[in-house]
Write a structure and sequence with these properties.
Blueprint (H helix, E strand, L loop, with lengths): L3 H29 L6 H8 L3 H6 L1 H67 L1
């Protein structure tokens, strides 16, 4: 029969491997569902302790990388949104100028029409 510590080590290794598998599955599931990937969500989804997540460098790095990817995507979206907002401002400004020009032209045409009507009336 083997030494009891061998069985303990084998059990610990099996539990560690199982926990790692759960964490990896949780990260992939969260990514697929477009949910935030952070220590809390991974902990809730996988059922492992936060201590486990922070303690294992590989897992910690994966979570931090996923979190930074999300931040970059959000930042890119905000940049696009801001760009769209700025282009809307430019478009609105151009339309305001066009409206002002048309109103001025309209006033000019009204004055000309009034002058022509006066001339026509005087000729009668």
């Amino acid at each position: 029969m083997g030494e009891p510590s061998q069985y303990l080590k084998a059990s610990w290794k099996r539990r560690t491997d199982e926990s790692r598998r759960k964490v990896l599955e949780a990260i992939e599931t969260l990514k697929k569902q477009n949910e935030p990937v952070n220590f809390s969500t991974v902990q809730k989804k996988s059922g492992v302790s936060k201590h486990y997540l922070y303690e294992h460098d590989e897992i910690r790095t994966m979570i931090e990388a996923a979190r930074s990817e999300e931040a970059e995507r959000a930042s890119a979206w905000h940049k696009k949104y801001d760009r769209t907002s700025k282009s809307k401002d430019v478009l609105i400004s151009a339309k305001d100028k066009r409206i002002a020009k048309l109103e001025e032209e309209n006033q000019q045409l009204k004055r000309e029409l009034e002058t022509l009507r006066r001339l026509l009336y005087e000729q009668k």
